[in-house]
Amino acid sequence: TRLVHMLRALADTSLCRIVMIHHPPTHVGLNRRRHLHDANALQKVLTTGGVNLVLHGHTHATMLSHIHPSGHSGHSGHSELGIAIPVVGVRSASAFNDNPKRMAQYHLYQIEPVPCPGHTTRFRINLLVRGYDTDSGGFQSVGRYTLSPRNAPRYDLDDLDDLDDLDDLDDL
To answer: What is the model's pTM?
Structure first.
């Protein structure tokens, strides 16, 4: 497909390949009505093309799953890159209500290349989830995740605790 050719062409660069779509490309944690009907075909394209990260919305929930090299979704596995492709669902950043499971959130990603001689460039991907706190009237850190390859050094995310707004992204 055209997407596979584009992704493979980018594999020869030092760019992190991120795909953003509306519907989640995995079936983990979803009822049948919310499934992407051609998810299995898309998973095959993503693993064949060598995607580093997939971001989606639709469910308005923070979700983390992975795509395996065989094109099946789950919680671990490896893609053509030799690592699991992380799939992250993102909540709405403007959902202000009384339900904490639906409260506004946004994600900050730190992406750094990891030298892997003899392999396509891999990336250390760290995720900081920030959620709206009604008591303070602002956004607070609610979770930190490392989405990087197993063989990449882990980044200390404690340095990210003091992020108060998007201007602090320059400090990452």
So the answer is: 0.77
